[in-house]
Amino acid sequence: MNLPAHPTKNLPARTRVLTADELDLLELALSGGPAWSPEGPTPVTLTDAENTPLAVADDDGVRAVKPFARAAGPHWDPALRRGADDVRAEVRGADVAAVVVAEAPTRSEVTVLPALTSGADRVLLLVPASRRAPAAGAVGAPGLVRVAADLADGLRTDATRVDVVVVPWPASSPARPGWADVAARYGATRSVVLAEHRDQADRERVGDLGSLWADEVADLYPEPSAREVVRAARTARRSGAVVFFTGLSGSGKSTVARALAAELDDEGLHTTLLDGDEVRHHLSKGLGFDKESRELNVERIGYVASLVASHGGVAVAAPIAPFASGRARVREHAEAAGTFLLVHVSTPLEVCEARDRKGLYAKARRGEIPEFTGISSPYEVPTDADLVIDTSQVDVADAVAQVRAALVARLDG
Ligand SMILES: Nc1ncnc2c1ncn2[C@@H]1O[C@H](COP(=O)(O)OS(=O)(=O)O)[C@@H](OP(=O)(O)O)[C@H]1O
Ligand SMILES: Nc1ncnc2c1ncn2[C@@H]1O[C@H](COP(=O)(O)OP(=O)(O)O)[C@@H](O)[C@H]1O
């Protein structure tokens, strides 16, 4: 990547934090791959999630400002993750066959590979590497790099040089270019996607490979692929979830949430309870109950809950969360991480007030607590609840059963 002399001076004030997919597209474009520019107004400074300025997009196109942060793993090895310009310059003049290794190759693909590359002076095994985690059970970039290194060893001859090249590649993006275009940018004179040459029998067997019995895997895949397929299956995480209770003080959120969390934990789902009161003693210590503080509190809960879900856990949160805007932001975050279930505990105010476990309603009525939800501060009734439970009508066990059933339906669906 050629960087200008004083790269970070006079950057546009408008900034845009790129998503993981956009970072992949930008890295590919700046290293000489197909052009890419962000949607939205320009000039703009493009940054990563840590707010490091990486590039500027303006009327002249997109130019680099700082090198990308690198991470660990074989797919970040600079000897393999080479820019398209660099590789193209090196292979110029040769007959170059590019082979895209996007999945662990089966035996039928390995068998057909020499024919696909026959006559080439150079073979580039292009391994797509996304900044996003692979889908559950799929072999990710590190595994594909190891598999490609084995393929290269098997293919190399005195007349044919074979190199593994890691290509930044968004997991899914409408702006993703075609492989033929990408391969040409890396200097290939012809290209194939290896998985498209999987024979029909192998294709069906890969689709049916639910049980992953060791002998079936070994029969279908050559040893290097089999090792990665089993490893990916072993580390596959079940997708996580956020169950978010909302409702008035005393409506029963904590009681139901606590019982639900205990039940899910008992079933082996790793469950984290983020109770409203408890959060305010730790994560949100010192925050008040004005609208801004409540929104901040709910946003923090949503952030932590989404982190839990993104690691395959179940987060059960139970704040009042009285404002639709805050709840919508939580939903947006959580749905990007896994399953989201909004449970409105709709117990009527009169019932909550009659329960008045902590004596807070009485105090609020006497004017001793300002901005008390339902008395002197609003509760915006959700219009997007996935489940509505009135605990003056159903007991705790019933409420837990309803939420559990809704969650299981989502996770399995
Ligand atoms: N002004 C006011 N309004 C509402 N609630 C109040 C207030 N002051 C203190 N409390 C106690 O704080 C608990 C609610 O905190 P939350 O973090 O769930 O509220 S919010 O989501 O930020 O609105 C709530 O606990 P729960 O009864 O468990 O809901 C109350 O005990
Ligand atoms: N069906 C029910 N579900 C949940 N709580 C109930 C139910 N019936 C009575 N309650 C009582 O209502 C109170 C609810 O308090 P809590 O769970 O702390 O509510 P919140 O967290 O919404 O403030 C508890 O004292 C609980 O025992």
Task: Provide a concise account of the structure shown.
About 40% of the residues lie in helices and about 15% in strands. A five-stranded parallel beta sheet has the order 10-11-9-12-13, with helices on both faces.
Please give a structural write-up.
This protein is an alpha/beta fold. It contains 15 helices and 13 strands. The chain has helices spanning 20-30, 84-91, 107-116, 141-155, 179-185, 200-207, 214-220, 223-235, 253-266, 276-281, 291-310, 324-337, 349-355, 360-365, 396-412; strands spanning 15-17, 44-47, 53-58, 61-64, 96-100, 122-129, 161-168, 190-193, 240-247, 271-275, 314-318, 338-345, 387-389. The strands form 3 sheets. It has a 5-stranded parallel sheet, with helices on both faces. Strand 1 (15-17), helix 1 (20-30) and strand 2 form a beta-alpha-beta unit. Helix 7 (214-220) crosses helix 8 (223-235), helix 9 crosses helix 15 (396-412) and helix 11 packs parallel to helix 12. The two termini are 44 Å apart.
What structural keywords apply?
5-stranded parallel beta sheet; Adenylyl-sulfate kinase; binds 3'-phosphate-adenosine-5'-phosphate sulfate; 15 helices; alpha/beta; kinase; 413 residues; 4-stranded mixed beta sheet; binds adenosine-5'-diphosphate; nucleotide-binding
